[in-house]
Amino acid sequence: MSSAAAPPAPSPTDPGRPSDPGEFFKLAYKRLSESIGAIGVGLLLVLLLEIVFFSLQSEFFLDWANFKNIGRAMTIIGIAAIGQTVVIIAGGFDLSVGSVMAAAGILSAFLINHGTPFALAIAAALGLGLIIGFFNGSIVAYLRINPLIATLATLSIVRGLAFVITSGQAEVISNETYLSVGTGSVFGIPTVVVLLIVLFLAVGFILPRTRFGRYAYAIGSNTRASRLSGIRVPRWQLCFYGLSGLLAAVAGCVTVARTGTAEPSANITAELEVITAVILGGASLAGGRGRLFGTFLGLAVLAILANGLILMGVASYWQQVVKGAVLLIAVVWDELRRTRRDVD
């Protein structure tokens, strides 16, 4: 009776089965970079290094309470960064987000303090952000004004009107429903963090699966070609800036919920932090490139860096130096990537 043949041993050259650890890591890196991009892999490594470094510097860094603080710190900039990512992918730029945050927060607080129901006050604030976003989009799309100049003007106008209307005074919130958004939690996770994650997932689902996202990439890559192919470029640019204004208003309301006050000086320089997170996450200032997951990773890198510096007792003015340096590095890196791609 013949015995059954033994199964063949796996070939060391089988691409599905790396023969050594080096090959395994190369394959893992390739698959991971295909999924989240080379920049995403780099940011994950930076995050890991930050966590290791700051955990060695401070015994409080790895506490769950500290991670909740990091999450809360990410929400305001993170929500606005979602809309900014879409605008930059589409070849635009929105410097007005910080002013929109302040204006929306003031409007919501003012209405609630004068007897308006919570839901209507929030709806009005979000509507204000949407209107400002559409205004920005109209100037950029129909008047063909450079988005940097257009939104810089809007930044000044909206911030100035916020000071004029309130006479520079803050609105203090006592509405428990409003405040609970900033202090509440869901299964131990802060409510504002849950909101941030939901918004990232929702817009991240829409971008690659709908005309909204596909047209953003197409317009950012080549506006003229998009127009010739039948895409109504101005109409879609209006939508992209509208989303940015809407999400900036959401971030402004979250600011009020977290601090309990609304003031015209709130969120000054927030637009720089938003842009830093987006560019650090891999979006190109030239348009046509970027991922929301990259923005999320860039946001996490900045939030952990800021938190770690605070725990180490680094002075606030040095923190500003570090943030500015990170923005400069991100912009230079984006320019180098674009130059290398053009050469290739």
- For the biggest β-sheet, the strand order reads 1-4
Low-confidence segments, given as residue ranges, are none
Shape category: globular
Approximately how much beta-strand content do the residues carry?
under 5%
Structural class: mainly alpha
How far apart are the termini? 64 Å
Task: Output the number of helix runs.
Answer: 13
How many beta-strand runs? 4
Structural Rg: 23 Å
Biggest sheet features: 2 strands, antiparallel
Helix percent reads over 70%
- The helix/strand order is HHHHHEHEEHHHHEHHH
Question: Care to describe what's here?
Answer:
It is a single chain. By secondary structure, this protein is an all-alpha fold. 73% of the residues lie in helices and 2% in strands. The protein contains 13 helices and 4 strands. The protein has helices at residues 21-57, 64-89, 97-113, 118-142, 147-166, 176-183, 191-206, 211-221, 223-228, 233-259, 270-280, 292-311, 316-343; strands spanning 171-172, 185-186, 189-190, 261-262. The strands form 2 sheets. The chain has a two-stranded antiparallel ribbon with strand order 1-4. A two-stranded antiparallel ribbon has the order 2-3. The longest helix is centred in the first third of the chain and has 37 residues, at 21-57. The model has no long low-confidence stretch (mean pLDDT 87).
The gist of it:
This protein is an all-alpha fold and 344 residues long. It is 73% helix and 2% strand. The protein has 13 helices and 4 strands.
